[in-house]
Specification:
By secondary structure, the protein is an alpha+beta fold. About 20% of the residues lie in helices and about 40% in strands. It has one domain: Thiol Ester Dehydrase, Chain A (Roll).
Length: about 150
């Protein structure tokens, strides 16, 4: 469904790293979204993470065979979804917290030089609690997908 919306949009709503920092409280080394390529506040967001050999987690995961930890891919997806949720005017200054991760699947390793496309779409929300579907892709192929439960506080 999100692919359909993206193909029909005439203009993108982008956010730079500096603009993302105005919405999310995350800072180095936990700011995991480099750019938002498009989004609809409160509904969905598509972001990007450029994976570099300089990432601090590669020092220990794994020496000689750098692989981005799956938990950080999920965190990058959650941050992308948080940008969609927190970009609503009524959520300005709030934070989004994990409530749960369901059906996480990892299909391919993410390594230095990869560019993660991060897609997150809200599927339900009641009050401050919501559920989103999230997918990470590299070169158009799914590397991870999950369902994320969150709470806005």
């Amino acid at each position: 469904m999100l692919e359909e919306v993206l193909s029909q949009r005439k203009e993108n709503h982008t956010l730079s790293a500096e603009e993302i920092a105005l919405i999310l409280p995350h800072r180095y080394p936990f700011a995991l979204v480099d750019r938002i390529d498009d989004y609809e506040p409160g509904v969905w967001a598509v972001g990007r993470k450029c994976v570099s050999m300089d990432e601090p987690f590669f020092q220990g995961h794994f020496p000689g065979k750098p692989i981005m930890p799956g938990v950080l891919i999920i965190e990058a997806l959650a941050q992308t979804g948080a940008i969609a949720a927190l970009s609503l005017p009524e959520n300005k200054g709030k934070i989004a917290l994990f409530g749960g991760i369901k059906n996480a699947r990892f299909k391919k390793q993410v390594v230095p030089g990869d560019v993660l496309e991060l897609r997150c779409q809200m599927i339900r929300q009641k009050g401050p609690v919501g559920i989103a579907e999230a997918q990470a892709l590299v070169d158009g192929k799914t590397v991870a997908k999950t369902e994320i439960t969150f709470s806005i506080v």
